[in-house]
Amino acid sequence: MSDIIPCPAPPRLALDGDSRTFPVSRIFCIGRNYADHAKEMGEAAEAIFFTKPATAITCAAAIPYPAGTEDLHHEVELVLALGEGGAIIASGTGVDLTKRDLQARLKAKSAPWEIAKGFDNSAPMGALRPGPPPAAGPISLAVNGDTRQLGDLGQMILPPQDLLARLGRYFALRAGDLVFTGTPSGVGALNPGDSVAARIEGLPPLDFTLTERL
Ligand code: MN
């Protein structure tokens, strides 16, 4: 038996201090996990879940500004990496890039968010650090050196284990899954040429620049 098409290799994330890599299978995301961000979006602080395809992962230093938006937003997030049985084996710094204008139109129609959230290169990731995620500490994002987002991991409405328990009602979590845990307040627009620095204390940094529009 042979496949009719070549099977694409999964995207792989580097592990800090370990020569092995983490192959990404699925990406789950939570919305509204920090009360101050829910408030700035004019939404109730009630968890909602969505997914991105694994193809959204990028570790590139330069990311093209995507087509189909005039309002690309940054959302810095703690990202959990799951091993056997859905246990957390590592964590890292990620950005949930969002086409905010498109998302607003979809929200108004009660339509799914995939085209605003799951586009190519919509999930830039830094390296993962093996071990349990930090329970508290600063999470921040700066654009061209100006801090735009600054929160604390301790502000999460659903901390990692509670979040996994909730997500586990809907999906059998397994090795290869990544979970984006939501963003603090201060989300805003990115433009071609911007340099983004996402930081979570104790985890590898994430830096990228946006290049010209596709
Ligand atoms: Mn997000």
Q: How many H/I helices?
A: 4
The residue fraction in helices comes out at 10-25%
End-to-end Cα distance, whole Å, is: 40 Å
Structural class: mainly beta
Unreliably modeled segments: none
CATH superfamily: Fumarylacetoacetase-like, C-terminal domain
Q: What small-molecule ligands were found?
A: manganese (II) ion
Q: What's the level 1 CATH class?
A: Alpha Beta
The 3D shape can be described as: globular
* Largest sheet features: 7 strands, mixed
Number of domains: 1
Mean pLDDT: 96
Trace the largest sheet across and list its strands: 4-3-14-8-9-11-5
Order of H and E elements: EEEHEEEEEEEHHEEEHEEEE
At the fold tier of CATH, the topology name is: Fumarylacetoacetate hydrolase, domain 2
- Strand residues, percent: 35-45%
- The Rg value, from CA coordinates, equals 16 Å
The overall strand count is: 17
CATH architecture annotation name: Alpha-Beta Complex
What does this structure look like?
The chain is built from 4 helices and 17 strands. It is mainly beta and 214 residues long. The protein has one domain (12-213): Fumarylacetoacetase-like, C-terminal domain (Fumarylacetoacetate hydrolase, domain 2). It is globular and about 45 Å long. The chain starts with 11 loop residues before the first strand and ends with a strand. The structure holds manganese (II) ion. Manganese (II) ion binds at residues 29, 31, 75, 77, 96, 180, 182-183. Manganese (II) ion binds next to strand 3.
Topology:
Layout: E1 12-15, E2 18-23, E3 26-31, H1 35-40, E4 48-52, E5 57-58, E6 62-65, E7 72-74, E8 76-82, E9 88-95, E10 98-99, H2 100-108, H3 114-117, E11 123-130, E12 138-143, E13 146-152, H4 160-167, E14 177-180, E15 188-189, E16 195-200, E17 206-213
Parallel strand pairs: 3-14, 5-11, 6-17
Antiparallel strand pairs: 1-2, 3-4, 7-10, 7-15, 8-9, 8-14, 9-11, 12-13, 12-16, 16-17
Bound molecules: manganese (II) ion.
